[in-house]
Amino acid sequence: MIQRLTLAALVLAALAVLRAAPASAEPYLAVTTGYKCNVCHVNPTGGGLRNDFGITYAKVLLPAETVDNALDSWTGKITDRLRVGGDLRADWTRTTAPNSPSQQAFSLDQVRVYADLTLIPDRLGIYVDEQIAPDGSQNEEAYVRYGSTTDGFYVKGGQFYLPYGWRLQDQTAFVREVTGISMATPDKGIELGYEHAAWSAQFDVTNGIANASSGSGYQVTTQVVYTKQIWRLGIAGSSTKSDAGDRHMGGLFAGLKTGPIAWLAEGDIVHDDSFPGGRTLAAALLEGDIRIRQGHNLKLTAEYSDPDRSVQNDQQTRYSIVYEYTPLPFLQVRAGYRHYFGIPQNDQQHQQLVLFELHGFF
Amino acid sequence: MQARLFTLATLPYTAIALCSLLIAACAGNGEGLDANGRPLTPGGAAPPPLSADFESLQANIFTPICSVCHVGGSAPEGLRLDADNAYNLLVGVPSTEVPSVLRVKPGDPDNSYIIQKLEGHAAVGKQMPFGCPTSQPCLPTTTIAFVRQWITNGAPAAAASADVTAHLAIKAIVPDSAEPVAGSPPQIMVAFNRDLDVSQLATHTVHIEKLAPGAAPVVTEKLSARISMPEGNLRALLIWPSRPLSVGHYRVVIDAESSASFSDTAGQSVSVGAPDELGASVLSTFDVEVVP
After folding, report:
1. Rounded distance between C-alpha atoms, residue B235 and residue A95, angstroms
2. Are the CB atoms for A156 and A193 separated by under 8 Å?
C-alpha cells in the first residue's frame, strides 16, 4: 500500500509540475453507469474537467484499488468558486506499414489544463481548456456559460467543442475524422443547451471549422440525446455554409449496456461540396467495452469508412483492441493494437499500430 | 468493492460482441482505383517504386499522402500537391509560414522547408503529414531520405514532363477561373511546358485588377504585382500581389508597355494574355473566397 501511495503521490506531483489537465471523454463510462455526461463533467456535453461526482467516481469506482489519505481530500476545487484539473497522456507507439520500415517513438501526446470559475453559482461561469503541450500552448475551449447545465436551459459563448455524436477519446476514429468534429476541432460561436431528466439537447451556431480564419460562412449544429439507465439514443446534424463548399452531415448514435459490456455505435453520412463535383462520405463505429473487473476494461472497436459513396471498392476499415488498466485513482495504463485495412494499392491504409500509454489525470 | 463481473454467465455477451466486430464491413478491394482511392483514368498505372526522382516522389508521397489535404482551392497555405501543381508550387517557392525559407531549395535539403516540416523541426506549425506520429505515421527517415536526395540532386522535374518537341505553351495557371481559391493566394503560378529564357523576364510586367460583380469588366481596384521565377525551376513564373487579396473577383493583366510574349531557351516564343473589350491583355482570372 505504501508503494502505491508513493506512486500515486509521484504521479500527482509530476502532473502538478507539468500542470497537466484532464482526460478526454470516455463515453463508455456513461453507458456503463447510465449517466448523462453532465453527471461527471462540468461541460454538459462531456469531456474535460470533472465535477465533484466525476472526481469521486475517478477515485472510488474507476480504479482497481482505492487509495486513502491525500487523494481523499482532492476534489479539484482550489476554492469554492475555482475548480481545476489536468490530463497527461504519454505514449509509446510502433507503427508499421507494408513496404516501409517500422517507426517507434515515445511522444507526449497531450498535456492539458482545465479551469472553471463560477462567478454566480448555478448561473454564470467561465470555462477554459488549454493544451500546453505538445506544439506549444493552444486554447481548446474558452467560453462563458450562463444558465443551468444540470436542469434547464443554458447558453455558451466563446470557443468550444461542437456537440456531435460520441465524444470519443480517440480523435482519429473514422466517425470523428469524416465528420470533422472532434475534441481536436473546437469552434467559435454560441450554444443553446437544454438539460432535463433524460433529455439533453444542444443547438450551436458557429463560424464553421472550414471558415475558421475567415469572416464569412457559418455552421449550424444540433444534437438531441435521450438517456435511460441501460440505453441511450442520440441524433445529430450539422450544416456548414462556406464559400469553399457547403458541407452537410447527419448521424445517429446509441449506447447499450448488456451485462458487463457497454456498447457504443455511431453512423454518419456527410455530403461535402468542397470536393470538385461534391462527394458523399460515410463512417460507422461499433465499440464494445467489456468490464473484466473493477479497474480493468477491454475495448474492442470496429470501424468503417467510405470516403466516396459514388466510388466502388474504396472502403476502409479499422479494428482495435485496447486494454485499459486503472490501478489507482488518477492513473491509467493503456495497451492496444490497431489494424487498418484499405485498398491494396495504398500501403498507408494497411498500417498496424501498437500503443502503450500512460495516462495521468486529476 | 472487488466484485468479479466477468464470469461464465457473461460469455454469451462477449461472444456476441466479438462476432459483431468480426462481421463488420470489409475494406474495399481497390479494383479500378489508383493509390489515392480515386477511379483510374484510362491508361492509369501502378506507381513506380520509390526513388529520388520527382515522378516517384509524386506517385508515392505527394499524391497518396499529402494531396489528401493539399488539394484544390482550400489547400493549406495555398500549397497544392496534386500531380499537376506540386512541382511548380514547391521548387524555389518561398514557404508561406516562413517566407525566408524556400519550400524546396534545390541542392540544399537542410534549408528546404519541406524537409523541416517532414522531419518536425520547422519553426512554425506542426509536423507533416498532419497528425503524425499519433494519428498516422510520420514519413520514415528512409522515405524522407529520398526527398532529401532529390533536393540534393537539384530538385529536377519529372523526366516525363520534359516536352522537347512541343511548342512553348502555358500548361497551367494557379489559381484560375476553374476553381475559386480559399483566401488570398500567396502567389499566382504560371506553368510552362518548356524552360523559359530568364534573360527576357525583365521585359515583362503585370498588375492585378479587382473587378466588380457583373458580366462586364468594371475595375474597382488596381494592385501592383511583381514577377519572379522559382529558384531552380525555369518552367514557372510566380506573380506576387503587392498585398493580400480580399474576397472578390480578380484578373491578372499584362501591362500595356510590357511584352506579351515569352520565349524559351530554344528561342521559341508564345504570346500570352487574351484581350478583353477594354483592351486589356488578361493573363488569367480567378476568384478569392474564404480561407478554410
Report:
1. 39
2. yes
* Cα–Cα distance for residue pair A242/B40, rounded to 1 Å: 30
Q: Degrees (nearest 5) of the Cα angle A225, A229, A230?
A: 90
**Three-class SS of A5-36:** HHHHHHHHHHHHHHCCECCCCCHHHHHHHCCC
Question: What DSSP character marks residue A100?
Answer: E
Are β-strands B170-174 and B181-182 bridged in parallel, bridged antiparallel, or unpaired? unpaired
Give which of A162, A198, A191, A173 is closest to A268, Cα–Cα: A173
CA A340, CA A320: separation in Å to the nearest integer?
Answer: 9
Please provide the size of chain B in residues: 292
Contact B217, B251 (CB under 8 A): yes
- The residue of chain A with its CA nearest to that of B69 is A275
A206 interface with B at CB cutoff 8 Å: no
Three-state SS annotation for A144-187? EEEECCCCEEEEEEEEECCCCCCCCCCCCCHHHHHHCCCCCCCE
d(CA A301, CA A336): 11
Q: What pTM, to 2 d.p., does this model score?
A: 0.65
C-beta atoms of B21 and A300 within 8 A: yes
Q: How far does the CA of residue A210 sit from the closest CA of chain B (Å)?
A: 4
Q: What is the pLDDT of residues A288-342, one digit of tens each?
A: 999 999 999 999 999 999 988 998 998 999 999 999 999 999 999 999 999 999 9
Q: pLDDT per residue over B211-230, tens digit each?
A: 888 777 788 888 888 888 88
List chain B residues with CB under 8 Å of A343.
27-30, 33, 35, 37
According to the model, what pLDDT value does residue A5 have? 40
pLDDT digits (tens, 9 = 90+) for A233-278: 999 999 988 776 788 999 999 999 999 999 999 999 999 886 667 7
pLDDT per residue as tens digits for the range A150-183: 899 999 999 999 999 999 988 888 898 888 888 8
